[in-house]
Amino acid sequence: MKDDVRMRGFARRHTVEAALELLDRHIQPLDAERLPLRSASRRVLAADVESDVDVPGFDRATMDGYAVVAASTEGAASYTPLPLVVIGDSLPARPFDGTVASGQAVRIMTGAPLPAGSDAVLPAEWIDGASDSANVAALAAVSPGKNVGHRGEDVARGTTVLGRGRTLRPQDLGVLSSIGVGDVCVIRRPRVRLVITGNELLAAGSSPTGYSIADANGPMLKALAERDGAVVDDPWLVPDEPEAIVEALHCGSDVVIVSGGSSVGLEDLAPTLLAKHGELWVHGVAMRPSSPTGFGKLGSSLVFLLPGNPVSCLCGYDFFAGRAVRTLAGGSKEWPYRSIVAALEHKITSQIGRLDYARVRVVGGRVEPLAIGGASVLSSTTRADGFVIVPADSEGFAPGTDVTVWLYA
Amino acid sequence: MKDDVRMRGFARRHTVEAALELLDRHIQPLDAERLPLRSASRRVLAADVESDVDVPGFDRATMDGYAVVAASTEGAASYTPLPLVVIGDSLPARPFDGTVASGQAVRIMTGAPLPAGSDAVLPAEWIDGASDSANVAALAAVSPGKNVGHRGEDVARGTTVLGRGRTLRPQDLGVLSSIGVGDVCVIRRPRVRLVITGNELLAAGSSPTGYSIADANGPMLKALAERDGAVVDDPWLVPDEPEAIVEALHCGSDVVIVSGGSSVGLEDLAPTLLAKHGELWVHGVAMRPSSPTGFGKLGSSLVFLLPGNPVSCLCGYDFFAGRAVRTLAGGSKEWPYRSIVAALEHKITSQIGRLDYARVRVVGGRVEPLAIGGASVLSSTTRADGFVIVPADSEGFAPGTDVTVWLYA
């Protein structure tokens, strides 16, 4: 158990870039499932959707008014009204059956089918005569096609309406419904198991007592993974015992996220166990916090080993586990955070060779680094508006430098 | 039924600003409910949360190493090692029971309680000697408090950890859990009923046949309202009959959204019915599309009358109904869309006195207005990346103008 190397730090750390490159080689969108349209909002299409109908399926009025033969209104004006004989009505789904000839008109509502013979709609305000009169007069001329929505103008049969990889917006569901699509083929949501290790931990929601502390990482990781599209069971609390950890890792979930015991200390069991029972691809990353992060594979599950310190855990999730969850779900690898660019109020210092994740506030349009303790102070991430990344090749930023702030949401 | 005024347009239109001002007077966050933490992500706190514990509840190590009396390491350096007698171990939740004196040390893990007597942690890499040895040597001095996380440094007892109105982030759930909060008091989600009117409509997912069309607005409105924090039942499809519409309106939901029949045409029944059975505050807004939009109240329900044309329906939702849903849910009135500023590729023209909602694409960083039909072409909002608002006092924007684009999501 007590091993000099394990007590003295990592033999070698991956750069963040190298770790991400390695991760990206192992992640791709999951297989597909069919879902009813009503459940498909924000999901990712697994295949192109082509329309096999025209929308609308018929020419229709785009205004309330009178369907006419456009040519028969030529010369009409307020001082030279042209008489029209009203021969019927066209309402949505209750079309006019006959044919409109020159000098005739059919009262028509928005969305109603354009009657045979007519080729334009004269808006109601260009008509003289009561709306229930059989004899009215045109006060203006219309050109052919005016105020008519043509068959297929919204969606033409055979068109690819939405492409594979599209994250479905509310209006996309509307368009899919309009072409008669009742269910869609979308990327399956990854199943994520959370394994929270630590003899000192009490279940979330417990009052901390004595030297025991309540699990903060479980509720946080569950919300993060759900935000990124995963289906997440309630966290498993596991003691720092090899058998218990190994049992928790074997689950067949798409992703397992382990919190705690990821470093090189006496009770940091997870890396050794993952290496023994599966594959440990990365262990130790040149970043702060979250340097004792690792990942690999066990059976069909991607396994992420995140530090138990909650700020490290958040940072390690955002850099590695979250990227995997989002990619498996068919979404973007990139952070789901908005970014802004603003000037630093105070300097941020960092070390060459290590990427830094600096929590900041944005006050009056200026970026204020938070004077914060270490990776154990989770409240620093609730007081912060977001974070600034200092790349590994930088010693930090001077006051006044424009920096990119990623805003927590 | 056939009434000249109703066929000829609105007697008067509200400006968008006036309509919003009127709406804002009638909307405020709903009452509160208690929820388990695990279900509270993205919900809005209904009350401040104060901590009645310190986190951590004890001084602890922030690194793996040796707990010592800092003063006893004075003068230690690699060429002048100072001997230390290791008298025990401190592990998380398994503290060392004794007291550390000068010249003594306790092996300690990150997060473990700092033993009595000690006031600093000497990192393992500054120690000469095997990690299981009882006699080691300090290779460097530490100052008091070094590598120690003090009681209450994350959260001090009595502190307001998160304030009323806060939308809970994943890390907020972590902090709440760490102070022993198992459930939280959050603003209730508004219940929304969707009433989709139109004799020509088939239920979402049906193939359009003859002169009937499949409901596009129901699935779209459901996804929009859910996005904004509502609980939404499946849409009610209702024929254009007064009794059926009135029955659907009486439901006690916090919000009722009616699609279709909102204008002044022959079968536009909703405004008259709302005025008769409840209150119609606004009917007709100086905007395009979505001018035939209205809202008011019936019993305890806010009622929104949106045009049946799907682009109008989307626009009317975003301007009015969505604002109400988000406010009732405790969130921001403002659009949930990101915005960017970019230069127009082609001009956008508008009329003074009317606000315009112009769908655009963003191609190579330039804003291209979509050459699109009217409010009936929903696919214009799936081809668009977002929209540009032309205010009522503007005739539009010339090519090259920097405009704000609200990006659909």
Describe the structure.
In chain A, strands 13, 16, 17, 18, 19, 21 and 22 form a 7-stranded mixed sheet that branches. In chain A, strands 7-4-6-5-9-8 form a 6-stranded mixed sheet, with no helix packed on it. The first copy, chain A, has a 5-stranded mixed β-barrel with strand order 23-26-25-27-29. Chain A has 4 domains: 4-30 and 189-328, MoaB/Mog-like domain (Molybdenum Cofactor Biosythetic Enzyme, Chain A, 3-Layer(aba) Sandwich); 34-55 and 153-187, Alpha-Beta Complex (Molybdopterin biosynthesis moea protein, domain 2); 60-149, Beta Complex (Molybdopterin biosynthesis moeA protein, domain 3); 338-407, Beta-clip. Residues 1-8 of chain A have low confidence and may be disordered. The first copy, chain A, is elongated and about 95 Å long. In chain A, strand 21 and strand 22 form a beta hairpin. Chain A has helices spanning 4-7, 16-24, 170-178, 217-227, 242-249, 270-277, 310-328, 379-383, and strands spanning 32-36, 49-50, 60-61, 65-68, 82-90, 104-108, 120-123, 127-128, 135-138, 148-149, 160-162, 183-187, 191-197, 201-202, 213-214, 231-232, 236-238, 255-259, 279-283, 287-288, 294-298, 301-306, 338-344, 348-349, 355-363, 366-369, 386-390, 396-397, 402-407. Chain A is of the alpha/beta class and 409 residues long.
